[in-house]
Amino acid sequence: MLEDLPTAASSRTEWPTAYPHGYAVVDVETTGLARDDRIISAAVYRLDERGEVEDHWYTMVNPERDPGPVWIHGLTSEMLEGAPLFTDIAEEFATRLEGRVLVAHNAVFDWQMIAREYARARIEAPVRQRLCTIALSKELGLPLPNHKLESLAAHFGVVQRRAHHALDDARVLAEAFRPSLRAAAAGGVRLPLLECRPLTEWNDSPVPRQSSGYGGYRPTGWRPSRKRPACPYPNPGRYEDGKPLKQGMRVAFSGDTSIERELLEDRAVEAGLHVATSLSRVTSLLVTNDPDSGTSKVVKARQYGTPVVDEAAFGQLLRDVEPADE
Questions:
Q1: CA 250 to CA 284: how far, in whole Å?
Q2: Partner of 13 at 20 to 30 A CA spacing, among 129, 183, 295, 316?
């Protein structure tokens, strides 16, 4: 295990002054992957600026509904019945996160689940930045066969004991993050930090109680049910570099974004753009912070020659969208 490895190398490394001063390595298990799913367990390993473990914390959470895929996370309705509600653990969870960079594997998922739970509780999550270990492994050029946590763990010799158990997943990630962080520091690598914007919307509709089977759960939706109207403007074609966006352009999104995806899509729709769920030959623009990824949208964008910009550039373009032709 990594605890047994010598740490002399880290002491010789001149630590970048711009690096964060502390991290909260997080894993949450959930009732599912949708916007209205709930957290059923959470774990946090607090690390100092060089990745050394300070302490760890774990709790189960009663989602007040069907626990979802028990065959994955192993938490049944009976096990969760006496667990605290999220509102009961929100303050303790917050103390574990406060003033630290949230670190997770596929961090956008963990952050959005956490942000939604805090929004439901009408509390602001004390997280301002997150770091995805998938993105960090790409920055370091690690020779991984894929981006699963088990592959990252195997690369650093970390033994996983209970996959999909929040505490063990967080431990594994903390042990794999420490050498990743040191390698980044030694190589002067800029950490792929993204902003975390707390949500300010929540759904006050009743939440379904736990039922005896997964199929008994019917989602209520994170926001009030709505369907976006069709874009009223014709597609003027592809975006051209150096020119403004134009109403009616078809925009697709791929990968992690610092602003929650749905809020970013809302801004695009309000500006008169057509938000596309897939990428085709008529897509005007792809927005992604990871243009080198192998997602289907990025691959198709390369094939079709679709222009690609990152989230920051897209945000600038949204400020001055050209009106559609009359």
A1: 5
A2: 129
